[in-house]
Design a protein that fits this description.
binds zinc ion; A middle domain of Talin 1; two-stranded antiparallel sheet; 3% strand
Length: 201
Amino acid sequence: MKLSLDFQKIECSKCGGVRILASPCPECGARAPKGEVNRFVVSRREGLRLVDAAISKLEAHGKERDEPTPDDLIACLLRILEAIPTFVRAPTSDENVTELAGSIVELQSVRDRLEAMAGLRPGIGMRVAKIESARRLERVWELYRTALSADTIVEAQTSASRAQDTMDSAGEPIQSAAELRALSDILGTTERRFQNACSLP
Ligand SMILES: [Zn+2]
């Protein structure tokens, strides 16, 4: 996802360079005057406060009984990735706040359901992998959240790029578990074939 965040900029009164409103000058280090406000940053932070409040009010819906699949995790991620840029365009819009909060709660509820099934047989290995992938996706949101509340472009870029890296690695546990399962299936049949070949009439 390409995250583009607006930061109000201003000319530094000390060196004439460009600095971000309410942040120190990157050229000369001059600090922003007290009380200076960057309305884009303030608005995103206000929006995030509303998202947090909405998340705490939304109850994870535990009605679904089926075990979440890797596709369910992908659907959760896509919903979050769609909700973030919309939120950025109008961070305090009720609709955007509700959708972003809803997308995060959906991911949490998928992870909750997987954790509740953690010890059930069969498929423990794959379930542990899905839980780990779900946790990584939650971490993706935390990192984007940090990017959205950042004071400066550099801070925002750092968090957004860590979010991207985490997203890239989120599927690895499931992939490894799938490969292991495929391997154990092959070994299982090989063993049976071997037994069949050796059994005398
Ligand atoms: Zn300066």
